[in-house]
């Protein structure tokens, strides 16, 4: 599984794509009504194929679904951000956590070296036993 920062970047990329898809939906399916009484819509012989006007109920349902998806994805991003380490810790606390982890790593490395040494000793003993068995 990817780390939190990678998940956050992917979620942000997805949110941007969702915004673009939402804008495309509105641009593609709007009802060609003016915003104010002074706005004019030019009369075209051939209606542009880029706009496929939907009935108002379908258009609003589509907008509501897009808005719901955006809100849910924003909540996911908020959850990822809250899971980032260090948001509730001061710099001093974070530095202490790093020192503690470094000490823990040093202890584990010491244990690893001891295990390697023990393994080498056991292999040496095994090698000696095999040589003894092969001689007899």
TrEMBL record:
Keyword Cell membrane included in the entry's annotation: no
Alphabetized SUPFAM superfamilies for the sequence: Mediator hinge subcomplex-like
Origin superkingdom: Eukaryota
Cellular location(s): Nucleus
Pfam families hit by this protein: Med21
Keyword DNA-binding: no
GO cellular component: mediator complex
Coiled coil: 91-125
GO molecular function: transcription coregulator activity
Alphabetical keyword list: Activator, Coiled coil, Nucleus, Transcription, Transcription regulation
GO biological process: regulation of transcription by RNA polymerase II
Subunit structure: Component of the Mediator complex.
Role noted for this protein: Component of the Mediator complex, a coactivator involved in the regulated transcription of nearly all RNA polymerase II-dependent genes. Mediator functions as a bridge to convey information from gene-specific regulatory proteins to the basal RNA polymerase II transcription machinery. Mediator is recruited to promoters by direct interactions with regulatory proteins and serves as a scaffold for the assembly of a functional preinitiation complex with RNA polymerase II and the general transcription factors.
PANTHER family according to UniProt: MEDIATOR OF RNA POLYMERASE II TRANSCRIPTION SUBUNIT 21, RNA POLYMERASE II HOLOENZYME COMPONENT SRB7
Family: Belongs to the Mediator complex subunit 21 family.
Identification of the protein by name: Mediator of RNA polymerase II transcription subunit 21
Top-level taxonomy: Eukaryota, Fungi, Dikarya, Ascomycota, Pezizomycotina
